[in-house]
Design brief:
Layout lengths: L11 E3 L17 H14 L5 E8 L2 E8 L14 E3 L4 H14 L21 E2 L2 E2 L2 H5 L26 H10 L14 H15 L3 H13 L10 H4 L22 H4 L2 E3 H11 L8 H7 L4 E2 L6 E2 L4 E2 L5 E7 L2 E8 L4 E7 L8 H8 L16
Antiparallel strand pairs: 1-3, 2-3, 2-13, 4-7, 5-6, 8-9, 9-10, 10-11, 11-12, 12-13
Helix pairs in contact: 2-5, 2-6, 2-10
């Protein structure tokens, strides 16, 4: 298992893992100095962030490069143990729960989600086709991106009061315009519904299910929804695109699409298991996630269970919330994985950084120019 990784704003720490320690020259990922330059340019040159942490797992071992701070004016550096909201990267964990429950013969991919909801809840269907667990995981359920009955008491924390009752109300009244399984439509609602249904079937809340099935077995002690005082002290403050601090998000029924918080260190542990560098009770489930292939509306890209499957073989997902952007991806062929976490929401995001580090032929984005006088 990975040891603790910490990196200051102006430096890095490289941790090798014995049997995999090799010459840095063999790495397909750019060196730390080049990664740091990318981060400096993104934060200072393009006014696109307060802090960014990059984690890399490769045959030589793991490394972390960080630049920036937890908050504007906060001199504490970011590092591998800094915690961020990871937004839709949560969907990968939800789909891993599904794959694990299938491996344990607790559910089946073809099961209708209605089977795991309270009796009396009407789930929409069309042409006799019911929404399955696989449909929800691959964004082919036919459900919209978000439910139309969201009326948050606090727009800055939009999911905090979206309850199971509201979810059931929406499902019971929604009229589908295409058959489930017939096409791709990215749906936060669908992923949230999947997490809710699996948690109900397991007899615990979503966070407890993630903890018992994923984070505890993998030793990911900085990943969760509810943060301990010690974890809160490591939480990077989120910022909007104007670099103003914003509040964190909370979730009820839709936690399965975006509620998790994590660190680069923990997500490298997660990638280490996906790449087969460490033994894990989730090995079979992780492999099963990549055996499902559903077409998307983005040329050449497919959906596995939770993961996006790029034409060049990269497996990835990104995420965002009001104050954060995230990317997690890996290349099974080169056995390299990359994590990018930022405590600023910007249109450009960090997806391009992650894809570039996994395959340097993928270009970096050109963010908007910084305002005059910045």
């Amino acid at each position: 298992m990975l040891r603790s990784l910490l990196a200051g704003a102006c430096g890095t720490i490289l941790v090798m893992s014995g049997a995999r320690a090799q010459s840095r020259a063999e790495s397909p990922v750019p060196p730390d100095s080049e990664i740091r330059k990318i981060l400096v340019d993104r934060i200072h040159g393009a006014w696109q962030g307060v802090g960014i942490v990059v984690g890399v797992i490769e045959p030589q071992g793991p490394r972390v490069v960080a630049y920036g701070s937890l908050d504007k004016g906060d001199k504490r550096p970011l590092g591998g143990d800094t915690i961020f909201e990871i937004g839709s990267v949560t969907k990968v964990f939800t789909s891993l729960l599904l794959a694990d429950m299938v491996e344990r013969h607790e559910v089946a991919l073809a099961d209708p989600v209605a089977k795991y909801l309270p009796e009396g809840v009407k789930v929409p269907e069309r042409s006799g086709r019911r929404i399955t667990l696989e449909d929800l995981s691959t964004h082919t359920s036919g459900l919209p991106r978000l439910p139309s009955n969201m009326k948050p008491a606090n727009p800055a924390n939009p999911y905090a009061d979206y309850s199971a009752e509201r979810l059931y109300e929406f499902l019971s009244t929604y009229k589908m315009w295409r058959d489930p399984g017939s096409g791709f439509e990215y749906s936060n609602l669908g992923a949230g519904l999947l997490g809710h249904a699996l948690a109900r079937h397991a007899g615990m809340d979503y966070e407890a299910l993630v903890r018992s099935r994923i984070t505890q077995p993998l030793g990911m002690n900085s990943t969760g929804i509810t943060l301990s005082p010690q974890m809160k002290a490591r939480l990077a403050v989120g910022h909007n695109e104007k670099l103003a601090p914003v509040p964190n998000w909370d979730f009820q029924a839709l936690a399965g699409f975006g509620a998790l918080r994590s660190s680069a260190h923990d997500l490298l542990v997660f990638l280490e298991a996906n790449l087969g560098y460490s033994a894990s009770p989730l090995t079979a489930a992780m492999a099963a996630m990549l055996k499902v292939h559903r077409p998307t509306t983005i040329g050449g890209t497919e959906m596995g269970l939770g993961w996006v499957l790029a034409p060049d073989g990269i497996v990835w997902h990104n995420g965002s919330s009001a104050g954060y952007r995230s990317f997690v991806g890996f290349d099974p062929k080169s056995r390299v994985g990359v994590v990018v976490l930022a405590n600023t929401f910007t249109v450009t995001g960090v997806n391009d950084i992650g894809m570039h580090l996994l395959n340097v032929r993928n270009p970096l984005a050109t963010p908007p120019k910084a305002p005059a006088g910045r």
